[in-house]
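Show me a record, fold above all:
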Amino acid sequence: MTMTMGQIVNHLTKGISIPNITVDLLEPGYIDTEVQGIVTAFSASQYVIEQAISLGANFIITHEGIFYSHRGMQDCLLHDPVFLQKSRLIADAGIGIYRFHDAIHRYQPDGVMVGLLQALCWHNYIVKQQPAFAILTIPTMKVKEIAEYIKAKLHIRYVRVAGEVSMPCERVGISVGYRGGGDLAIPLFLNENVDLVIAGEGPEWETPEYVKDAVYQGQSKALIMLGHAESEAPGMKYLADVLSAQFPMLPVHFIEDRPVFQIL
């Protein structure tokens, strides 16, 4: 049984209300192209594209965009050598790339959140699930212990922490991606009575500054920032597992990219 790129996209988005303006596009690619193999990844970096080619996969499903912007290619890149080399690689390989961002975040529950919680083995601790966050009651651990646990489970070298690292935590709020800003993360402390917020990333002058002031006032609050990719890549690994089970006739691979930042 053959599957086309369009059939895979339709399967992924079936029953999902996608906004009229969306970044979820098959571009480049054609809906009637037969899929030889699938690669899922957080971002369609050049490394990921080269890995897909080496695996014989002609369809990449990426959470974030190809050309360094949420809304698509920027005009400033038109003559940029990095953009041109990457564009040639994609064109020469004849690969289709589908941006799977808005739809997976509209799964109920959020598909990216499901992947992160499964990777952390915390899915059984959920007490409340909302589109933008989950509330968990975990076995009591200190902030530092939680940070070390996360690093081990996600195989990442570091996280960033605000607050008192020796503080014991039990009630935790978690969000993925760029949901660590003050408008989303700060209300979790008051409205959900969490000890700790774990997020991907957000403006450094918002939630981290709030936690800094709270601790200075003697209040027990903490924040762990995982990094955007570190919080969402597990969701794309989870997607690969799901697709592999649903389409056993197709080779499906999750490509774990190299970390963006180095610790010096």
Q: What stands out?
A: The chain has two domains: 5-106, 111-228. The domain at 5-106 is CATH 3.40.1390.30 (Udp-n-acetylmuramoylalanyl-d-glutamate--2,6- Diaminopimelate Ligase; Chain: A, domain 1).
